Amino acid sequence: MVVLLVAWGCASSALDAVDPALFDATPTWTADIRPLLDRYCVSCHDGDSTFDGGLELATYEAARGTRIPDACSASSPEVIAAFADVLVLPTEYGDGQPCPSWAPLSMPPGAGAHLSPAEQVVLMRWIETGAPR
Ligand code: HEC
After folding, report:
1. Under a CB-based contact definition with an 8 Å cutoff, are residues 26 and 132 in contact?
2. Is 14 among the domain residues?
3. Has residue 4 been placed in a domain?
């Protein structure tokens, strides 16, 4: 972690402000991810609306299943770059590149508030640690 901080310290980065402990954390669906998606996403992606591209994020199973596109569309390019190894889809769906089809920070759409860099790291760590319930 010290090495990462020194490396990032050279260029100003939104990641500089993120608590280093979050990069080692193991977030869970119940304690961390569900409240985050409830706040930013579930108003549209509630599984009961047509204005959501058919994506449901209100249950563990659904959010676990779409975790890579979710994290890609809710995160900034620099957070995506930092976690590129966990954002690669199985080859039958992707081309081996991280986030093949989802634009960074495209969700929530429009002028809605985006996840903070720290919240983006929490979402990435959830995926990296196997999306525990
Ligand atoms: C204001 C409503 C709204 C909110 C809030 C919202 N979305 Fe969406 N989302 C949509 C709509 C509408 C679509 C389908 C049209 C599109 O892709 O732009 C969509 C599409 C998506 C897709 C693409 C699905 C696909 O198969 O291509 C993903 C992934 C996604 N949203 C994730 C999220 C995440 C994660 C959040 C929270 C951080 C979020 N969305 C918040 C309205 C919303």
Report:
1. yes
2. no
3. no
From ligand 1's centre to the CA of 54, what distance in Å? Answer: 9
77, two tokens = 């390019």
Q: Give pTM, 2 decimals.
A: 0.90
Residue 46, SS3 per DSSP: strand
Question: Domain for residue 133, yes or no?
Answer: no
CA of 39 to the centre of ligand 1 (A): 13
- Answer whether residue 2 shows pLDDT above 70: no
Residue from 51, 25, 12, 7 nearest 118 by CA: 25
Instruction: Report CA(10)–ligand 1 centroid distance (Å).
Output: 34
Residue keyed to tokens 């990032």: 8
Report whether residue 73 contacts ligand 1, using a CB cutoff of 6 Å: yes
Asked if residue 30 is part of any domain, the answer here is: yes
Per-residue pLDDT of 20-36, as tens digits, reads 999 999 999 999 999 99
Percentages of the chain per state (helix, strand, coil), in multiples of 5: 50, 5, 50
Structural domain including 49 reads 22-128
**Tally of domains in the chain:** 1
